[in-house]
Amino acid sequence: MTLRLNLRLHSNIIRKRIFVLLVLIVLGLILFLSIKNDPSNCFLDSVWKDGKTLQEVSENSKLKLHSTSKNVFFHETSCNVNGVIKLNARQSCAIESAALMNPDHNIYVLFTSQVGFRNTTNLRLIDALSSYPNIHFNFLNLTKYAQNTPLENWIKNGELFRSNFVNSHTSDVLRYLSLWKYGGTYLDLDIVMQKPLNTQNPNNYAGAESAKFVAVGIINLEGETGHEIADLCVKDLLENFNGIEWGKFYIYNIEYKRKDRASKFLKI
C-alpha cells in the first residue's frame, strides 16, 4: 500500500514537472516570436556588425541641412531581415528616371533596414543604378535621423513602432522629416519622371490626387517658406498621428486647418 502510494506521488510529481516544463517552453517560444516579430527590430542599429551596412545618411557629406533645393529623396521602409540591399524593377525605374531627368540633383535612396552589399551575385538593378554619379544609397537610422528635430522624443518613445502599419507610417513620417531637415523633393518609389523638376522658377508644391484631395507621392518644399510648411506638417503629425489609420494626408490637414499660414504658400 505504501509502495503504491509512493509510486503515485512520484508519478504526480513527474507529471507536474513535465507540465511546468511545457508551460515554460510555450512561454519562451511566445516571447521569442514576439521579439523576433517586433517591427522595431528592423530599425535597430545593432543587428549587423560586419561593416557592410550602407553608409549612414548623416555621414554623407553631400547632404547639408537646408543648403540646397536640389535634393531628391526616396525612402525604402520595408523590413529586410537578410541585410541585402534590394530594389524591384519598378522602384529602380523610378529612381533612374529621377537621376536621368535631373543630373544636377542628388538622388538619395534611404533604407531604414540595415542593408548593404552582402550578396553581390544578384544585384544587377543596384549595379545599374550605382553607375549614376548622382544616385546615393544610404542607411537611415531612425533614432539618429530624428535627433534635433520635433520628432526626436516621439521616435524614442516608440509610438511609431506600435502602429498597425509600421512600414507605411514610417514612410509617411520620413517624407516630412527629410523635407524638414534638408528641403528638396520627396518622391514615392512608384513615381516615374518624364521631365525635369522645375528649378528655374522654384516653388512649393504637392501632387494632386483629385480636384479635392492633395496627394503625398510627390512633395517639393524648399527655402524658408518650404521649411515652415514642413514644420507645420511635422507638428500636425505629432498632434494627430493614429497608428490604426491608413494613409493620413497631413498636407491636406494643414491646408484646411491652418489656411492662414499654409494655403497661400502651397501650390497644389
Description:
The chain has 268 residues and is α/β, with parallel strands linked by helices. It has 2 domains: 2-37; 57-257, Alpha-Beta Complex (Spore Coat Polysaccharide Biosynthesis Protein SpsA, Chain A). The protein has helices at residues 2-36, 89-101, 124-130, 142-145, 152-156, 166-181, 223-240, 250-257, and strands spanning 71-76, 106-111, 135-139, 184-187, 205-208, 214-221. A 6-stranded mixed β-sheet has the order 3-2-1-4-6-5, sandwiched between helices. A hairpin with a 5-residue loop joins strand 5 and strand 6. The longest helix has 35 residues, at 2-36. The chain is globular. Mean pLDDT is 80; it is low at 30-37 and 262-268. Pfam families: Gly_transf_sug (PF04488). Keywords: Membrane, Transmembrane, Transmembrane helix. One of its GO terms (cellular component) is membrane.
